[in-house]
Write a structure and sequence with these properties.
Blueprint (H helix, E strand, L loop, with lengths): L8 E7 L6 H9 L2 E4 L4 E4 L6 E7 L10 H10 L7 E10 L5 H19 L3 E6 L10 E7 L2 E4 L2 E5 L6 H25 L11 H25 L8 H25 L2 H22 L12 H80 L1 H8 L9 H5 L16 H38 L20 H12 L5 H32 L7
Antiparallel strand pairs: 1-5, 2-3, 4-6, 5-7, 6-7, 8-9
Amino acid sequence: MADGAIFHLDVTTISRSQGRSSVAAAAYRAAERLLDTRTGLEHDYRRKQGVIDSYIAAPDDCDWIDHRQALWDAAEAAENRKNSTVAREWLVALPDVLDVTQRADLVRALATELVTRYGVVVDVAIHAPNRKGDKRNHHAHLLCTTRKAEADGFGAKTRILDAAKTGGVEIAEMRAWWAGMINDALEAADCDARVAHRRKSVIVAEMQAAAEALRKQAANIDALNIPMSELDGMSSLAKATGKAFLAAAKGGVGAVIAKASDAKELRGQAQDLERLVADIENTAVGTHDGPQLTAYKRRMAKAWEAEAKTAAAIRAAKQAEIERREALEREKARKTEEDRQNALRAAQEAAERAERAEHYAEVTEPLVARARANAAFARRITRWGINLDVSDHDAALDPLWTRTGKGYDGKWIWAILTDEAEELDRKTQQEAERQRQTNVEAFMETQVERAATFPTPSQKWKYPGFKALEPDSIQSAFRSKYRAKLTAEEITTTIRKMLNRWVERIVEDIGNIKQGMIGYGRLPER
């Protein structure tokens, strides 16, 4: 089971200077929908697949952390700088050889250690391998706050992880602790695989140094085992002797007594180490193997290969079952989504109908109001089946308004009744205009007749003032009689007719006066 466990622990920070948000990070890792109260942005990752489990680990007496939204809202609110570090993430790989429960126990132990060691809150999300990637890539995200959690909120920053002097030491200690926890779990699961917490670069450097040392040992042995047949003259012999003395000095007694076949074996070991270095360098995360396990791996290669095939067959069967269940879940989800979409469409259509009804209500409500005041028009509406025995608004929302009227070229009922109402209005207006014109003419005649009482040379005015020809007086007289107003032109016409009549009377009166004076001999006849 050489490939059953790998070691990977990476610590990164989430900072506003990077344009990142702890709320968005938590929503993505837990596959939830969260609202970033600080920015107003909603982060919805509920369709994300592969989240096996998620939960929050917090110190005791932190009852105010009752859900993920409250946690990260408070974490964001606790920071007031635009470049604040708002969260710290621990990303760890989980051994493929362990089952779901064993991996979950490992993650919970790490979360508990982080809470206990630093006093922070840990948001845990355990992820399954990506279906398009390495099927062994079980891993967990532990998103931690950068401040200690207290009973009434967040307290001081965890500077021990931020400082250059202490941060590296802390992470190194946590890497060693995590490697020990993984190895304990592997041993408890009867698995021979083990992990090492050192960096890949350190392991590679050690293996390269070991390979170089093996090659040098092989070269020393070769120098001490040169066949005489390969020497060509005294110069070659002198050179070979010099190399042999140098090899004996460097290699010691082991090099002197070693055989040529030993040098070949050493070179083979060096090549094995170099191949292993290449494999490690091409691996995304550091492996658990060090140079000390190389020989053991060679001895166990065949057994591991057979065991790997068996494990692969078991994994394939499990994967087939998982895929079958996933297919069933997808089909169930598809049907659920289809039902949801149908419900949404039905709700949308109902909303559109209601919206159209509200839109037409702007036109139909005036028709209902007219029906309330006009029994004849009300009968016209009820003839179409529209119920007026309800409130005005409900009557205006009656769906019959939007049906077509038979014999009206496909026009809707509301349009038919609107045309009828407009025609009634037009006729009423015409009748009102005719009646008004009749009233104006009658008023003018009355005013002209009133001019017969105006003063003339022979007839005095019996009132103390004379306002009969004032426009305001004429307007007031018309308004008091007909409850309407004259236009300026109508007032002018009325005054003109009254003046004409008054002038006629004055002329007649002067003629009568002159005629009387002639009869009495006061004026000579012409």
